[in-house]
Amino acid sequence: MFIDMMVEQETGRLLSREKTLGRWRHGTLLQGRHRCPFGPYFKVALNTRTSSTTYPEPFASRMVGREKRPLGDIFELSNFGVNLTRLIPGACSALRHAHSKQDEFVYILVGCPVLITDQGETLLSPGMCAGFKAGTGNGHQLVNRANEDVLYLEVGDRTAGDSATYPDDDLQAALDNDGEWQFLHKNGTPY
Amino acid sequence: MFIDMMVEQETGRLLSREKTLGRWRHGTLLQGRHRCPFGPYFKVALNTRTSSTTYPEPFASRMVGREKRPLGDIFELSNFGVNLTRLIPGACSALRHAHSKQDEFVYILVGCPVLITDQGETLLSPGMCAGFKAGTGNGHQLVNRANEDVLYLEVGDRTAGDSATYPDDDLQAALDNDGEWQFLHKNGTPY
């Protein structure tokens, strides 16, 4: 079976074209929590991962209002990830952080988040983008201080051996051999 | 000196904030072919690479009307590239092709290109995305058959040892050790 798939930006609806038993079915539009007849793709697309931060407390609670849709995973991309991420008013993209190995890139689709780096604050708007080169140590974070939602694309590669530093919080993180983030206090003790 | 930079979607204008001699200058807006006082960043952003295809003829001529702005390069990202690409009516994204190592992802911002794969044609529209996993051999291409421009983001990683196949053309390509594409006929003779 072959599936072509696309995701609608605003709704997260998954538009698919599937071939089963030698016959094409065009433009199937799936809404909501559709039970997936094809495999793991749809579940990934429709689960918005609102609670999927891997931060330990007290940091996990600060990610409320952030919704990630992992678009790249839908297509089984493994070299990099692409998320369609929504921040409701007051929400933020992540703790302010910097990666040792992973390049990151964001492109603003809707709304006006504030980008915070070591150099201060910059107001972004739709059509603007920012890149965060691995290894600079310059922490970055998007915060939605406006009254409307922010929607943006974020891209990050999956280089092995990555780690992250958090200039504003008592936290450090490293990717383990299974690709899971392990979080420690800055003094090295685990959470 | 430190520079924050963002690129405006429609115009390709580069909005920067720079710190020189300990003083921040906010919201510098640069238009057109600005002579770059800061380094290589601006040149990359403002050169639209309309003629930068590396295809040999007769294929290079078929890329007329495709304009790429390498956004990721502006921020010196090296693990993956992000292009903001415009297709005027009649233009296409590339020859239909498939990568052996590089994952690819596109997200449509403006217009309605046709996605062509081994499974046929799918009309895309703004907010839709598609991913092309490395190694499937399923060639893909976007073609703008509409009367308005198409604008999309494309992401691709830079895995070493990549190669590309072109199901519809007498062409094959491989990345050499310098990261340059080398093009051959399908029988192995060079162009």
Word description of this protein:
- The structure is a homodimer of 191-residue chains.
- Chain A is mostly beta strands.
- Helix content of chain A is 5%, strand content 40%.
- Chain A is built from two helices and 15 strands.
- A five-stranded antiparallel β-sheet of chain A has the order 4-5-12-7-10.
- Chain A starts with a strand and ends in a 7-residue tail after the last strand.
- At the A-B interface, strand 1, strand 2, helix 2, strand 10 and strand 12 of A face strand 1, strand 2, helix 2, strand 10 and strand 12 of B.
The level of helicity of chain A is under 10%
Strand order of the largest sheet of chain A: 4-5-12-7-10
Q: Can you write the helix and strand succession of chain A as a string?
A: EEEHEHEEEEEEEEEEE
Assembly type of the shown chains? Answer: homodimer
How much β-strand is present in the residues of chain A? Answer: 35-45%
Estimate the mean pLDDT confidence of chain A. 78
* Protein structure class of chain A: mainly beta
Q: What shape does the CA trace of chain A take? A: globular
Radius of gyration of chain A: 18 Å
Amino-to-carboxy terminus distance of chain A: 44 Å
| Major β-sheet profile of chain A | 5 strands, antiparallel
Low-confidence stretches of chain A: 17-51
- Report the count of strand segments of chain A: 15
Largest interface: A-B, 45 and 45 residues
The number of helical segments of chain A is: 2
